[in-house]
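Input.
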Amino acid sequence: MANREKNKKTLLELAKLSQNCCCADCGATDPDWASCTLGIFVCLNCSGTHRNLPSVSRIKSIRLDFWDDELVQFMKSNGNRAAKNFYEKFVPVFYYQPQPDDCEVLREQWIRAKYERMEFAEKNRDRPYTADVYEGMLWKKGKDNGQFLERKFVLSVHDFTLKYYKEDESKGPKATISVKDLNATFQPEKIGHAHGLQITYCVENHTRNLFVYHKNGQEIVNWFNAIRAIRLAYLKTAFPTASNEEQREPFKKRWFILDSLDRKLLYFKTQLDAIELGVVFIGPENHGYSVRECVPKGTRGNKWKCGVIVETPDRQFVFMCEQERDQREWVEALKTIISKPMMPQDYTTEANIRRRR
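Output.
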């Protein structure tokens, strides 16, 4: 009994470490479950998917289940960071990594892709959603009667279009949609299917929607990521001087707040919003953080030219200020935080923010 309590205490301490305090798969905080075969800590929702992969993952509660010394040692020797470095080593920049509130099919296929199909462990792994042409059948909601009918869809990088066809393909596509204005998001409740995908595009300044699904979860997530892949390919062609991060979205005007106590740079859609759109952790220089003024290339959609680049261990952030004075003030304020050493609580804050992105 004493040994059981000792092992439970060790597991709880491991789960509180900065590298383990968020779910290895979706980033939810305070995971209470663990895969004793993969050596990772996960949340309740993600543990359900792991239970469906008995040949790959064995799930146990870190509070309620019995853990012998060997399994505890295995968890100590591995952990979420080690698993990420192996199973997520070659995740494509466009591939969507689910967050805690995302729908089940996204989370399930992300977990299966990592641990069951090992899609990201090898650099040159063949991934269908990266093909120049991706095609297949999807169930599409009819415009008039609302019924879902099978239609052939073709996504092509050669002309950067998405086409879909009715029964007689010889008559040509029913619609040809430019990738330029194409987007996709999962809407299972709106569509009435667990794999429901909403495809949005513009026609003559009017927004149009296609509601589709596929009975196979892997296939619909492949379509979702294929759309993201061709969007990135288009942006690389249309804006060749922009970096990968700049190509994902054009610049958008946001309201920023710098929280020096918690080392956080928060941004909001407007200054009246109560909830931030995102947050960037600002660590010290010896951890790989830096800030500098710049005039970056590829600043499409933005007339402001006073740039600020924030470097973190994971990525580079580019922000634009309207005036040089604002640029100098932001750089000085960020440098002040970067010059300060990390406090113990800062490590948890950093880990939580990284998993949210």
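DSSP finds ten helices and 16 strands in the chain.
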